[in-house]
Design brief:
The protein is mainly beta and about 425 residues long. It has three helices and 19 strands. The protein has a single domain (about 70-415), classed as Porin (Beta Barrel). It has helices at about 1-30, 150-155, 280-285, and strands spanning about 70-75, 80-95, 100, 105, 110-125, 130-135, 160-165, 175-180, 210-220, 220-230, 240-245, 255-260, 285-295, 300-310, 320-330, 335-350, 360-370, 375-390, 405-415. The strands form two sheets. A 16-stranded antiparallel beta barrel has the order 2-5-6-7-8-9-10-11-12-13-14-15-16-17-18-19. A two-stranded antiparallel sheet has the order 3-4. The N and C termini lie far apart (about 55 Å).
Length: about 425
């Protein structure tokens, strides 16, 4: 092997010297003709300006691209601010609809709604930066009843789901404080940020946004973040979260993320607790992710592993969830792509963390996507199956169905 390396290196050096010799001989054979007296030298072609880049927030999945020409304006002492957002609607049909606890009604087998009506204002330069995202949204999720956007917004994170200040003293470290996106998971909250319209089974056992503080470090291929927050939006600031990401030379990434409640005395939401954002059982425990992302040509493939652990408490006995997923995307061209997702999760113990104690579930999702400029449209077919469950905790109006199929259409603009 060492001999082969030496031969390859020698060959490379030889070819380089040969090429340099030919170039030198060519230069000697055809000397440059000096310009005639009084002639104007030929102008050097100007380099084209670099293409615009999208604003840093929000993060985007592999299929849809944020608008790189977002509106901006001079805000005086605040500096240059960018305004971007997403307006989109969806329609769906589904089997075995579940009970909508927010409205007190059974889900329909079909419906229409708006999925996002969000506007973001952000400042992304200077030592003091900020992000404020406001509007309405829905979180369509596999194996869960659909909540209309008005119900989802009012019962989870309100009309300002994201709002934080970022202090950037140098290029290595930064600090954030406010209502922050989670460090956990491979899928993001809003539909337009993700490869699929619906969020997956693993996403449903992760925190989405937390109130707290966060410090970030970045150097070379390494990025590290640590946060002290209120976990599943509980209002109790006893959760520690962390994330370490390494980026390889070919742009592949591997990420380790973890979050856990440092207190075992959690009894209730003390203040500002959202009824459909705070999972009291999961908030008491820990969650761990290992996420790898590989990009090659038209392919992006992201396998990831997730583990949830819940200790015994006044509310429930102990339990855990072992889960895995693969999210993949293939681009046919710059406008058309298709994304897919496959998942499996298994709960253990006596805690009801899924579809009853000791239950398991799996899912398949396929999402063809079209985007032209700021406009996008996509259709989706998904299937959720329960491998084992408890009667009354499964799918359908009476919790006695073991499968659910959905078809969705979403269309919108990212301005």
């Amino acid at each position: 092997m060492n001999k082969l390396k030496l031969l390859l290196c020698a060959g490379g050096v030889t070819m380089g010297l040969a090429y340099a010799s030919l170039a030198f001989a060519d230069d000697q054979a055809t000397p440059a003709t000096p310009p005639a007296a009084g002639a104007t030298p030929a102008a050097t072609p100007a380099s084209p300006p670099p293409p615009p880049t999208p604003p840093p927030y929000p993060s985007m999945g592999p299929t849809l691209s944020n608008n790189a020409n977002s509106a901006s304006f001079d805000a005086g002492p605040l500096g240059k601010l960018y305004v971007n957002g997403d307006f989109s609607g969806l329609g769906y049909v589904q089997s075995n609809p579940g009970f909508d606890a927010a409205s007190g009604r059974l889900n329909s087998t079909s419906g229409v709604d708006f999925s996002n009506a969000l506007v973001t204002i952000q400042k992304d330069d200077g030592p003091v930066q900020f992000v404020v995202e406001a509007g309405g949204y829905s979180f369509p999720t596999l194996g869960a009843s659909y909540l209309k956007a008005t119900e989802q917004t009012s019962n989870t994170f309100g009309v300002v789901p994201v709002g934080y200040v970022k202090i950037v003293p140098n290029s290595v470290v930064s600090f954030q404080v406010g209502q922050l996106p989670t460090l956990i998971g491979a899928e993001l909250p809003f539909t337009y940020e993700n490869a699929n319209i619906e969020r997956g089974l693993l996403w449903n056992t992760e925190p989405l946004f937390s109130r707290g503080v966060q410090v970030n470090f970045g150097s070379g291929p390494w990025a590290v973040s640590f946060s002290w927050n209120d976990g599943f939006y509980s209002g109790e600031y006893t959760t520690a979260s962390g994330e370490v990401t390494y980026t390889f030379k070919n742009s592949d990434t591997i990420e380790l993320a973890a979050s856990g409640n440092t207190s075992k005395n959690f009894t209730s939401c003390k203040f500002n607790c959202a009824p459909f954002a705070t999972n009291i059982l999961l908030n008491q425990g820990e969650v761990l992710n290992v996420i790898y992302s590989h990009t090659q040509g038209p392919w992006t493939i992201t396998p990831y592993f997730q583990y949830n652990d819940v200790p015994s408490s006044f509310f429930s006995p102990s339990g855990d969830i072992w889960a895995g997923a693969i999210i993949a995307k293939y681009s046919f061209n710059s406008e058309i792509s298709v994304a897919g997702r496959v998942e499996y999760e298994q709960s253990n113990g006596l805690a009801n963390l899924l579809y009853g104690p000791g239950s398991s579930a799996w899912s398949l999702t396929l999402t063809p996507t079209y985007q032209k400029g700021i406009f996008y449209a996509r259709i989706e077919a998904s299937y959720t199956g329960i491998g084992s469950g408890t009667f009354g905790d499964e799918l359908g109006a009476f919790g006695n169905k073991t499968s659910q199929g959905r078809a969705m259409l979403e269309a919108g603009v990212m301005f």
